[in-house]
Amino acid sequence: MFTEIKSTRIYEQVIDQIKEMVVTGKLRKGDKLPSERELTSKLGVSRSSIREAIRVLEVIGIVSCKQGDGNFIRTDFENILFEPLSIMFLLNKSSEREIFELRRVIEVETAGLAAKNITIKQLQEIRLILDDMEKTEDEDLKIKLDKKFHYKIAKASNNFLIVTVLNTISELIDSFIKDARAKILETRKEKNIIETHHEEIYDGLVNRDSKKCSEAMRKHMKMISECFIEE
Amino acid sequence: MFTEIKSTRIYEQVIDQIKEMVVTGKLRKGDKLPSERELTSKLGVSRSSIREAIRVLEVIGIVSCKQGDGNFIRTDFENILFEPLSIMFLLNKSSEREIFELRRVIEVETAGLAAKNITIKQLQEIRLILDDMEKTEDEDLKIKLDKKFHYKIAKASNNFLIVTVLNTISELIDSFIKDARAKILETRKEKNIIETHHEEIYDGLVNRDSKKCSEAMRKHMKMISECFIEE
């Protein structure tokens, strides 16, 4: 199961061995890692190297450390890209434009994929979200539902990777552009435009028309990005 | 500059303080971090917590550790997403389909952005790549040039974030689907199809026609994905 390690970059090799266990199926999602003490003696490295490796896996979002209970392979990875992306943004001083553009680039084609793959149940869920949005006057709730609408479409693409990347971008937009929502609300004067766009996207989904759905999403994103970028 | 830390999740707080220094501009790309000894005394935490934090930043790709010279904030972040994404793929047993689909989703719209933003110099570089591809019979070189073609288009989008994400996906495709190239070569019997597609994309770029360029890329990606997925 383990091989003894003799080298300088020890923590990296510990990570590699843990990865190896994942590749070979010896560790699966939700599994408990051997204790730090056990890993120390099995791998023949210092306890601090083991701890470094585990910390890295924790921050990356692979391992969760439950106090008093040990270290586990996570079962969800939704936030796995957040930490590295957020630090990268800070260091690169990435602009709002770049973050939003990536979202736009992904969402347009994802809408097309969703039109192909969406299930009846997912269509019904999206219909309900749109109905709820129309019923409420509460702006905070509307925004929550709006996010849910986009999230459900990503889910309908049936590609976990796309869902993860889009989620990360949304969170980044929320945390880096703190006034994004206010901006959009300020600029979005003709509220019907949003509703019309959403219905067009929904039509594309219902008719399983990838092209129409992508085009509707493109129009929607263009409108949003005009609120964002040009103000 | 620093605040003393008193808590349980110490290494996380060390990371937060380093991030804070980035946010406030006290640390920039290429800067040397204070020595481990200095950080230990300034932050009032153990040396091993400092080392854990630095290891995490290293693996994430934020810090590079030069033996005997200290720790530096990296100047490039091209590989920043590789480690977390690759482990995530392993754990999720993400399929080739998912990885390739994400690439496809991003490249189609990115081609449209590139048509808008490409510079004369970038157009010339891409022309040269296509000419070189036509001249050579060496399949390995052709593949190298093909990758360069796609990379240059991503660059022309003028969005660093898109370049980074696409690069990561390409590397993942290379390392997880080791026989991808062979597969494509095997299936791509009509070699002219590839060349025709590339020229269509190039036409879209030259004419700064986003729609045409996206459509040409969509067609190209569809062809590639058919080699991939259906074999």
From TrEMBL, chains A, B:
Keywords: DNA-binding, Transcription, Transcription regulation. The keyword Transcription applies. Signal peptide: none annotated. CDD domains: WHTH_GntR. It comes from the Bacteria. SMART domains: FCD (SM00895), HTH_GNTR (SM00345). Pfam families: FCD, GntR. The keyword Transcription regulation applies. InterPro entries: GntR_C, TF_FadR/GntR_C, Tscrpt_reg_HTH_GntR, WH-like_DNA-bd_sf, WH_DNA-bd_sf. Residues 8-76 form the HTH gntR-type domain. This is FadR/GntR family transcriptional regulator. It comes from Clostridium oceanicum.
